[in-house]
Amino acid sequence: MLLGVGLLAPARAQQVRVSGSVSAADTRQALPGATVQVQRTRRGVVTNTTGDFSVDALPNDTILFRALGYKSQRMTLSNTGLSQLIVRIQLVRDSVHWAKCA
User: Fold this and answer.
1) Domain 13-101 adopts which CATH fold?
2) Do 64 and 37 form a contact (C-beta atoms < 8 A)?
3) pLDDT in the model for residue 82
4) How are beta strands 62-66 and 35-38 bridged, if at all?
5) Which domain of life is it from (predicted)?
6) DSSP string over 10-71
7) Chain-centre distance for alpha carbon 72
8) What pLDDT does 79 receive?
9) Inter-residue contact 15 to 56 (CB < 8 Å)
10) Spans of all domains in the chain
11) Residues with Cβ within 8 Å of residue 39, at least 6 apart in sequence
12) What is the pLDDT of residues 16-48, one digit of tens each?
C-alpha cells in the first residue's frame, strides 16, 4: 500500500540555475544594476558590475530582464530537464525613454 501512496504523490519540479550576463544590444557593454526577476515569485537579483547574474527558477517560469533606459525582455524556461542554463541577454535601448530624458 505504501507504494501506491508514493505513486500518487506529486512530482517535485527540478530547480534550474539560470546564470549569464545582461548587456546593451547596440554597444555590447555590460549593464550593471539590471534586474533579473522570476515573475510571480519573490526571487530576483541585480546584475553585478560586469552584468553577470545567477538566479534559481523552475521549468515553465518566466524571467523578466529590465534596465533603466532599455526595453524589458522576457524568457520562459522550457521543461528540458536541465539543472543549469547559461544565457546572454542583450537589451535594446528604449528610444521613448531616452527622448523623455533629453
Assistant:
1) Immunoglobulin-like (2.60.40)
2) yes
3) 83
4) antiparallel
5) Bacteria
6) PPPPPPEEEEEEEEETTT--B-TT-EEEETTSS-EEE--TTSEEEEEE-TT-EEEEE-TTB-
7) 11
8) 82
9) yes
10) 13-101
11) 61, 62, 63, 64, 74
12) 999 999 999 999 999 999 999 999 999 999 999
Residue among 15, 13, 16 nearest 87 (CA): 16
The H or E element spanning position 87 is: strand 84-91
Structure confidence by residue, pLDDT tens digits, 47-78: 999 999 999 999 999 999 999 999 999 999 98
Is there a contact between 18 and 63 (Cβ–Cβ < 8 Å)?
Answer: yes
Q: Which residues contact 88 (CB under 8 A, 6 or more apart)?
A: 20, 21, 23
Grid coordinates belonging to 53: 547574474
Q: Identify the sign of the CA torsion 64, 32, 88, 83.
A: negative
Longest dimension (CA), the chain: 71
Predicted TM-score (pTM) of the model is 0.81
Question: For residue 101, is pLDDT > 90?
Answer: no
Q: Closest Cα partner for 64 from 75, 55, 56?
A: 75
